[in-house]
Amino acid sequence: MEDSFAVKLLSFFDIADSVGSGGTKYVQISIPSDQELSAKLQSELQLERDMNDTDDLPLSIRDFLDNSPFEVQDAPGQEEVTLTRTFGDEKILITFSIADLNALNEDPDQYSEDKAMFDEDAGELPEEGQSGGAQTKGTINQGRTKGGNFNVAPEDSIAPADRSELADDESPASEDDEPSFPARLNITIEKPNTKGAFQVEAIAQDGMIVIENVYYFSKGRLAEAKSPQDEWDSRNLYTGPPYGNLDQDLQVMIEKYLDERGINTALALWVPEYIDYKEQREYLNWLSEVKSFIDA
Predict the structure, then answer these.
(1) From edge to edge, which strands make up the β-sheet containing 90-97?
(2) Tens of pLDDT along 15-35?
(3) What is the pLDDT of residues 198-227, one digit of tens each?
(4) Nearest-5° angle of CA 115, CA 119, CA 124?
């Protein structure tokens, strides 16, 4: 009697026919690709869970939230995280994104180059009469910005880590210490008695807040520009000069202004750590959802 086979073809099935010595026909079907993919996803999930516990907030992240005036708005499945607080009658909003960490993973060489430039710039000595971008080891938030940093006296330092009285308590940095990645901050400050908004673009890295640009919008809604109309209205606005062109004393005052509102070393240390925590949590959720889809 002739053998009959009903074979359901699935994507990427490999079927190999062979004939035995007795003329019997064998059909060898490989493991379906969806089953292999599901098993790999499960293996990756288990590995990540064993290596990282994302069920509870790390102690350092929790300590910051418990002792900080900022409240976190973190929607699962979204890249952007928002910090909000009030300061007097001001409303302060800070946004950052896990996209910065993903971009670093995609182009680690660019980060290495930026870090090398960051360190090189930090060691430059100021030239006579130079303003804006001059940097020394006495500057606040040493690092590379679009407009550079500024020289200040030790008593004017913003970050506690920059203060001379704490310098002796700090142990020298080890060559094995892994520097944090640069996390971009968008800071918006609004007041109820005015329709305007003061906005700052900054980088948080290695415990430092490095200002890149400052803007003023006469209409606060244009600072976020969430609608196409707002984007169009903000295209041709004069919102201020490049930050590096500002007088050094004015730059110092802006840094103090931010520090007084909690935008300081503690925040600069916390943001990259929270981004790393959130990205890991989102990755686990992504693995789980993809596996559920494949298994359905």
Answers:
(1) 71-73, 80-87, 90-97, 183-190, 197-205, 208-217
(2) 444 545 556 665 555 668 889
(3) 999 999 999 999 999 999 988 766 677 666
(4) 145
> What HEC string does 80-111 produce?
EEEEEEEECCEEEEEEEECHHHHHHHHCHHHH
Q: Are 144 and 232 in contact (CB under 8 A)?
A: no
61/7 Cα distance (integer angstroms): 55
**The tokens of 73 are what?**
């708005």
Number of Cα atoms under 13 Å in the Cβ half of residue 127: 4
Rounded to the nearest angstrom, the gap between the alpha carbon of residue 127 and the centroid of all alpha carbons in its chain is 34
State how far the alpha carbon of 95 is from the alpha carbons of 72, 78, 188, in Å: 10, 12, 9
Where helices occur in the chain by DSSP H, the ranges are 33-51, 59-67, 99-106, 108-122, 164-167, 221-224, 228-234, 248-260, 265-295
Report which residue type is found at 116: A
C-alpha to C-alpha distance for 256 and 263, rounded to whole angstroms: 9
162-211 tens-digit pLDDT: 444 434 444 444 444 555 789 999 999 999 888 889 999 999 999 999 99
Cα Rg for the chain, rounded, in angstroms? 27
Q: What tokens were used for 143?
A: 């690092």
Mean pLDDT is lowest, of 49-63, 174-188, 198-212, 232-246, for 174-188
Provide the pLDDT for residue 126. 39
Q: Which two tokens stand for residue 48?
A: 């990540």
Percent of all residues in the chain with a pLDDT value above 70, rounded to a whole number: 58
| Residue 110 C-beta-side C-alpha neighbours within 13 Å | 9
The three-state secondary structure class of 222 is helix
